[in-house]
Amino acid sequence: MIEAVGLTKSYGDKTAVYQLSFQVRPGVVTGFLGPNGSGKSTTMRMTVGLDEPTAGTVTVNGLPYRRLPNAARQVGALLDAKAVHGGRSAREHLLCLAQLSGVPSSRVDEVIDVVGLGEVAHKRSKGFSLGMGQRLGIAGALLGDPPVLLFDEPVNGLDPEGILWIRNLMKQLASEGRTVLVSSHLMSEMALTADHLIVIGRGQLLADMSVKDFIAHNSQGYARVRVPEDRPDDPEKLRTALARAGGQLLPEEDGGFRVTGLALPQISDLAHEADVRLWELSPHHASLEEAYMQMTQGAVDYRATVDTRSSLQPLPQGMPGQGHAPQGHAPQGHGYPAGPGHPAPGAQGYPQQGYAPQPMPQQPGTGYGTPAPGGHPPQQQPWPGGAPGTQPYAAPTPGAPTSDSEAAR
Ligand SMILES: Nc1ncnc2c1ncn2[C@@H]1O[C@H](COP(=O)(O)OP(=O)(O)OP(=O)(O)O)[C@@H](O)[C@H]1O
């Protein structure tokens, strides 16, 4: 089990993680979600001793990583697939890791086969594609056969077959009773892979609950209806009938309608009573992506403009190397687009008061440590299950971290 209690990390003025408390339990895949810069990697780095918390603790099976006996055999992590000596072959790289952590070299060939790198095991890793690098990083995480595994965006760069493989691997590792924490921005993939979610925004806990509960809490189900086009009065008749019962009929772009506030049988009965024929009546189940967008939209620091093209200025003609003289087009220089399509961080949805800049105890960054190599650990033990006191919602705390843009000001 991984447990964070009041975990906080500041880099100078920037608070990357603030009073984060959660438990990652064994036996299930836990998805770790949050917008860019929300503190996922920082949290994972602190978990494996690569960064020191400014305050609070994060432990693996009750101990901070650096105090774990044989840490490399207890926790495996894929944090940065590029953190490999490019001059070494995949096999050499894994052999080095194996020697450092007291893992027998026979295990190296096993994990190479598991991740599908057998054919390129003797090739230098600097020639590896992004996906091959990810596979090598995953091999490194699996090397010590650890009961706790962290994967930071493991599907990055993988092809569809690789993504399916990762999904099954995560599930298999969890079904073996391991603790599996995996971050990703691919919501559709997370919906298929994760059982439980920890969602953070600007370093703070936003949700800690099952995928099912997360979707139910953060989205509104609705019904889709369609009426015959040759009966132009029907939409209005239906709208009136539904409104009397407390429902709402909203037109959709494709000519159909969305009904909120009423169950499907009620909609059917009301339409029948109003003499409106329905050509479609179907439930719409919200996706994890919809629920995630709804929850995190106010905690997004980096957002593209709605119409990215409209905010771009044309480049001046006659730039050096274009082979003709400037025609008097001066750059219309203003900074990076701002305006209606580029809302201020936290502009929608998420309570604003939590992000007011407040003085917080700060501590300069403590730099990077190195996970301690270790020898063979005791055999895996069954983990205590059923963590108490999970927190479905954590309201933003006054004094919470500012967004990057706020910090920059
Ligand atoms: N070594 C560092 N020095 C200064 N700031 C840092 C450092 N590491 C992370 N940060 C800042 O901390 C915040 C959280 O970063 P982090 O990489 O943990 O986010 P993330 O959720 O993993 O983002 P992404 O989804 O984009 O990978 C960011 O604002 C980042 O700029």
TrEMBL record:
ABC transporter domain ranges (all copies): 2-227
Entry's Gene Ontology molecular function annotations: ATP binding; ATP hydrolysis activity
Source organism superkingdom: Bacteria
Biased composition (Polar residues): 400-409
Keywords: ATP-binding, Nucleotide-binding, Transport
Gene3D superfamilies assigned to the protein according to its UniProt record, in alphabetical order: P-loop containing nucleotide triphosphate hydrolases (3.40.50.300)
Biased composition (Low complexity): 328-373
Residue numbers spanned by region Disordered: 311-409
Family in the record: Belongs to the ABC transporter superfamily.
Protein name, per record: ATP-binding cassette domain-containing protein
